[in-house]
Design a protein that fits this description.
The structure holds 2 protein chains of 2 kinds. Chain A has 10 helices and 18 strands. By secondary structure, chain A is an alpha/beta fold. Chain A is elongated and about 65 Å long. The chains are: A alpha/beta, B alpha/beta.
Chain lengths: 361, 251
């Protein structure tokens, strides 16, 4: 092992961040790092959350050889593959699994695909974003490979050393992976912002190769079938990536009143979020829920109206840069995390904000 | 058809947790423990399926130290028919739990295994997916609606995914993990709590199930998250807009 360690140390003294704790895993740390990213694509483009996974892979080590795995079928997949090949200079290879069995991201064939690719190429790390896609597929693939996955990593301190929130973000747990290859992670996208890429990096395109699916099991997709997908069409930015998020809670009292939140969001070019109470009362659909069991957001500005600030909700917003809370109850826990609080009736504040805020756009 | 439901004992969701001063973990001594909320939803769903005549028996299982029996007893009081406790003091990560569950499924042969989508302590969101992988069963994760068709032996599952809802059709046997929206769990009534005392909780060990508990993860430390610096209370909308513009530069 020593040769590789020394070579790496010479090449880049900052590649490793050793923990202050004695480790008996130097052997495993000296392994060559190569990462496979399970990527999601939509309309011929790689989703932003998968680009965060590239940023996370970059944090594992310098000189990490990164491959991106895409699956699906048809022209949209090919378009996404060329997008992937040119999107980031550190991606060295794009693997494409083109088959109708993977035209929908079902866990059963996807996990088998990951298993197949890992058997062939032997990556040291496999990463997916902590989206509903990543959380559905990666643990299943990990079980097939007999390794423990690590969920929702927010910080990478070394190739085997990770920080992740537990107890709804009320504690941070540092874990060391001591098992064999691959080390499998889902990463919290908001913790790994994608660096902007300069235009000239496009010359540095990755190779695109097809995954050999000849050994792909026939019945892999027969046990589960995709039926349909329903979603609310919206012009507003995606909740997970928005720069500003405006959220309403039980204090809005009705779906009708929630429209005030939507109006304010439109004015600010913001995404709309909701608490569990607002979703349960039927003011807005589930997919807008922010918190431990909903979406985790970390916008530049988070504005909460009629939100009390339960533990489970705060879990989803605590990394926001600026938090604004408007609530009638001065004792509401939300004020303990808010940078700016306004104790007032939101039905008076919202119209006033709508009137006085400058128009975005 | 039998349904197996996995239950986890965790710190009650309403408790404000405390990190131990030696950073070894979270204080669990003298802290209120309860059934993981997602597990309650899983059990409720199993009970509703049984009550609609589509299942014959609901088996609740839990793994961990002796106190897990309390959680199983709660499950029996809600209406589970019998329970299995895998008795171990070893630290269990989801991979081990999934292996233990697979062994129990192999022994009991249920047609459906229902779990919560995540435990609110480790927030892993892995066990259901992992046991489905080990069993080579299809999985319906983050379910907000489950419809069983006994004739065709399929389950139609609505899943809560990032962009909305996704509907899948799964061949039975299958693994389902529950989202919050699936149902409203019932309370155990006093007569049912009394009845639960005479229901059977079978105790097994990992060794009896031929499962070796080993771990490829090590907790290095548990710390408190950084505190946010104290904010200010503004007195008017004008002041708020002014602060956001000129102090925070957020709008």
């Amino acid at each position: 092992m020593s040769t590789i360690v020394m070579l790496r140390a010479l090449r880049k003294p900052t590649s490793y961040v050793f923990s202050p704790y004695p480790s008996s895993h130097f052997a495993s740390m000296s392994r060559f790092i190569s990462t496979l990213i399970l990527a999601e694509h939509e309309d011929g483009a790689i989703k932003p959350s998968s680009l965060s996974a590239v940023a996370a892979a970059g944090a594992l080590s310098e000189g990490n050889s990164i491959s991106m795995l895409l699956a699906g079928a048809g022209p949209s997949l090919q378009k996404a593959a060329s997008h992937a090949a040119s999107i980031h200079p550190s991606i060295s290879q794009v693997l494409v699994a083109d088959t109708n069995k993977l035209s929908h991201p079902l866990a059963e064939p996807w996990a088998e695909l990951v298993h197949l690719v890992q058997q062939k190429d032997g990556y040291s790390h496999i990463i997916a974003a902590s989206s509903s896609f990543g959380k559905n597929i990666l643990p299943r693939a990990a079980a097939l490979l007999d390794v423990s996955p690590i969920t929702d990593v927010t910080e990478i301190s070394g190739p085997q050393l990770f920080v992740r929130p537990i107890y709804a973000g009320n504690a941070l747990c540092t874990v060391r992976y001591t098992g064999g290859d691959p080390c499998m992670l889902t990463i919290r996208s908001t913790s790994f912002p994608v660096p902007s890429i300069s235009a000239d990096s496009k010359s540095n395109a990755a190779t695109i190769s097809q995954v050999d699916l000849s050994t792909f099991s026939e019945d892999a997709d027969r046990k589960s079938r995709y039926v349909k997908h329903t979603s609310q069409e919206t012009e507003r930015p995606d909740l997970g990536n928005a720069r500003i998020v405006v959220t309403g809670g039980r204090g809005l009292k009705s779906a009708e009143n929630f429209k005030l939140i939507e109006k304010l969001a439109e004015k600010l070019g913001a995404a709309v979020g909701a608490t569990r109470a607002a979703v349960d009362s039927g003011y807005v659909p589930n997919e807008l829920q922010v918190g431990q069991t909903g979406k985790i957001v970390a916008p530049d500005l988070y504005m909460a109206f009629g939100v009390s600030g339960a533990i489970q909700h705060l879990a989803g917003i605590r990394d926001s840069k600026v938090i604004v809370a408007v609530n009638r109850d001065a004792d509401a826990p939300i004020f303990q995390v808010a940078d700016y609080g306004l104790v007032a009736d939101l039905f008076e504040v919202l119209p006033e904000l709508l009137e006085k805020l400058p128009d975005k756009k | 058809m039998k349904i197996m439901v996995a239950l986890k004992r965790v710190i009650d969701y309403a408790v404000k947790i405390r990190v131990k001063p030696d950073k070894s973990g979270v204080e669990t001594n003298n802290v209120k423990m309860s059934m993981n909320p997602f597990c309650e939803i899983a059990l409720e769903e199993a009970l509703r399926i049984k009550e609609s005549g589509l299942a014959s028996e609901v088996i609740a299982v839990s793994m961990g130290p002796a106190q897990c029996v309390d959680t199983l007893r709660t499950g029996l009081a809600m209406g589970a028919d019998r329970a299995i406790h895998v008795d171990t003091s070893s630290l269990l990560y989801p991979l081990s739990v999934a292996k233990l569950l697979k062994a129990l499924v192999d022994a009991e042969k249920p047609g459906l295994l229902i779990l919560g989508k995540q435990a609110i302590d480790d927030d892993c969101n892995q066990t259901g997916q992992m046991v489905a992988g080990l069993l080579k069963w299809p999985q319906g994760t983050f379910a907000s609606k489950v419809v069983l068709d006994k004739e065709k032996q399929v389950a139609t599952v609505d899943r809560e995914v990032d962009g909305g809802l996704e509907t899948l059709c799964l061949d039975l046997p299958a693994v389902i993990t529950t989202d919050l929206r699936l149902n409203q769990p019932r309370y155990a009534t006093l007569p049912n709590i009394m009845k639960a005392k005479s229901k059977v909780i079978k105790k097994v060990t990992p060794a009896e199930l031929n499962v070796e508990i080993k771990s490829d993860l090590e907790t290095v430390q548990v710390t408190e998250p950084p505190k946010r610096k104290a904010g200010v209370i503004v007195s008017s909308v004008d002041e708020l807009i002014d602060k956001l513009k000129n102090e925070a530069h957020a709008i």
